[in-house]
Structure formats: C-alpha cells, structure tokens
Amino acid sequence: MTSLFHSSLSKDFSLILDNADDYNVVIHVGENDDIKEFYAHSVILRARSSYFKSALSSNWITKNNNMIIFNKPNITPTVFDLIIKYIYTGELNLTKQSCGDILELLVASDELLLEELFEYVQDYLIEEKSSWINQNFDLILNAVFRLHSCKKLQDYCLQSICKEPLPFIDSKSCLLLDKNVVFSLIERDDLQVREITIWNFLIKWGIEQSDLGYDRINWNNDNYEALKNTLDQFIPLIRFVGISHKDLCGKVLPYKAVIPNHILNEIEEFYHENILPSLPLRMKNMESNIIKSELVNLIIINWIDKKDVMVNRTGNDPLYKINLIYRGSKDGINNKIFRNKCNGRIASLVLIKVSGSNKIFGGYSSIGFSSLGDNYVIENNISRYYGSNEYAGLFYNSSDSFIFSFENDTDINNMKIGRIINQNKAIQDIKSCGFNFGWSSLSMSNDRLCIVNHGIYENILPMDETYYIKEIETFTVTKLL
C-alpha cells in the first residue's frame, strides 16, 4: 500500500518558492506602474506547464549571468502570484480575490496551458460567481470567446442571455461586443425575444462598429455600403418571418440597401405569396424532460392562440415566454408539493409522462390551477362557501383552457386536443388533487393521473382511466408584448 504525504510536500515546495536562493528564472510580470519580479526554478516550471517547457527551452530566451529572464507583461502580478503558488504547491484560494482577477486568472491559465487550473477556475466562476457573470456578460464574453477550451463558460453566458435577453441587448455595452460573440448570439434558435428587437440591436451594433452616425438623413451610398460590409454575415441569421408587416415596412426596409437581394426576394415571396423564408421562427426554449420543444412551438402554442396546428407562426403572432416552475422527479410527486409550486392565477401548462406507455398527457389553463383559496366555489360568477372538507371543490371559469395528448414526444400526427365545453367548470380547485381540469376530465391525485368524462371538455382521452405518473412538469406561459 502506497502512503501519500501531499500536505508536507506542498509545504516544502512553498518554502522553495518563498526562500530558495538557487532560482534560475526571473519573470517580469505586469506593465507600466504595476510590475513585479518573480523568482522560480526552470525545472519546476517545465514539469508543471507545457507552455514553460517549450518557452524555457527556446533559443530566443534571454539570459543574464546564466539567469533566464522572462517577460509576461500581459499578466498582472496579482494573478501571476496565484499561478506561481499553484505551480509550486498545487494550492489555490479564490475566496478573497476579485471577480475581475479570477477572470484574468482563467485567461492566463489557458495561455500557460495549465489545464487543471483552467477547468477549476471556469467551474468556480459558474458555480460561485453566477450573479457577477449575469451582470458582466459583455466583459466575460469578449474576454473568453476566442478561447476554444472555454466553451462551458461561453455556453453558460449565451444560454443565460437567451432566457432574459432584453436587459443585455438594450445595454450600451452590448454595442461593443466582438463580432464573433454577436454572431454566436443571434444565430441561436432559443433567443427568447421578438425578432424585431434582434434586428434593431443588430442595426445599432453595425452602426457603432462602422463608426456611422444614427441620423440617416446625412448618409450617402458609402455609408450604406460600410454598414452592409459590417453586417454581411449577420443578415442571413435574422428570421424575417418573425417580423410583423408593420415593423418590416417601418424598421427593416429603410435599411434594404444592406440586405442581400435574395433575402429581399424571400421576404417579398413570404408576404405576397405565403412562401416561407429559409429560416423558421426561433424556438421557444423549454426545459422539458417530457416533450420536445418543437411540439410546443409547432402545436401547443398554436392551440393556445386557437390556431390550426399546421399554420406557420409569423411576426404578427404573439410571442410567449415559457418557464419551468415544477418538476416531479426533482420536487416530488404529490398534491401538496404541486399546489405549493403551482399556486397563483397564472396561465400554466402541465405535462405528464405516464408509466408503462409512451403517451404524454397535458393541459393548459389560462387561469392557473389553484388560485383562489380552499373554501369558495366560483360558478356563474357567484361565490359560495363550501367548508374545509378536502373533497369540497372550487370551479373556475375559463374559455381558453384545454386538455390534450400525444402518442410520444416526437409524434405530430396523432395528437389530440379537447377544448372546454362547460367553461364555468373549466378548472376545479380541490384539496384532494394537485390539479383538476373540469371535474376530473384530467386530474392529478398524488402519483396518479385520473381521466373521467363528465362532458366538461371535448372527449378525446381514454374514458375512466387511471395511470401512474412517471414524470410531471408545470410551466408558466407568459405572453410578451
């Protein structure tokens, strides 16, 4: 059995770093008024970093009295102090470091090919400094976007922006983003904002990058040509099908000089001949383990808008934000948890995966599931006290609610929808159920899904069936202006 004494080894190497007089490398770090000398041993640097192994073996290194002189002006002394201690001792303490220094440490560790340190710092930023990241997307993305090994942090930033893009896109700092960052952002299918907002941002960014004035009255052909050259690779990423005809005429076509002719032809064919452009609408990103996002975008959203499922959505249609608020496998599958997580008069979508089948059941309620309390019934706009019995119910009025089923998570040919018939009993709020669409037309009773036909909804589900719930998810559905 091998015994390990890493603690004492680390301590001894720390003494070598701090007190040794046999160093053979002098490293000048920093620039201007922030410069510091570090003393090190080439054998340790080469052993710990493939960067130093190559650099210190090169013929172009400077020597003075057999001392290797090495310059790193692009790394600050504060950051290099962390690096050299890590190299010698394998120790790192970031608790007292500023977030800016930690970001610089990430970039420096990538340059010095310290892979273990790089991975740790990247994970540390995501797990411990997420609030700072969310306030400094532009700084971080511009710093790390050219680092191929930093994909995890890049993806984290882009995914976070796509969920709440408006504060970022509307910021002045966003206009200074590197073109690679802008490209990676607007090419995403899950950017959750109106397409005209993306277009407006792109035009402003292009004007800033081209150093043009915002007053187009003073522009000439050279100005438009400069903007076109700046935006040439970005224009094809815009989903013009997602821009309303009004915004197209008022905000897009004034810049038609920067739009390639084939795209202008696609736009004209779409609005005059109903031929879809090459790029479809962006997907409404949905964190579901039950259903594919495509089914939400192609079918459920159209059902909510009372449109035919095969009608393509355009910029004239409402845009929705869909947020996960409850997942049974994570939060627990029972009535109490569901009611606590999904309480409130908020338009909501529930999805259910049942055991022993690929079937998916679900329902949409424009008024939520348990919004008024436990002791009142609403029927024909009249409130009546029912007492506290767990089987006493509350009926909510809704003309927009519906229930549905899919054969599996990808099938768009065998889906069924049952719209409300008796809107006075669209949703029943009852203690014995997590949710209840119209007197158990579709209801949750702890870990069971119950289906009973009482004529409240169109009869599209198996009559008088009970299933065990394998997974259940609830999402709030918010219409964006």
TrEMBL record:
Task: Name the domain of life this protein comes from.
Answer: Eukaryota
Q: Which residues form the TLDc domain?
A: 290-478
Annotated PROSITE patterns: BTB, TLDC
Q: What is this protein called?
A: BTB domain-containing protein
Checking InterPro entries in the record gives: BACK (IPR011705), BTB-POZ/Galectin-3-binding (IPR051481), BTB/POZ_dom (IPR000210), SKP1/BTB/POZ_sf (IPR011333), TLDc_dom (IPR006571)
All copies of the BTB domain together span 23-96
Q: Which residues form a coiled coil?
A: none
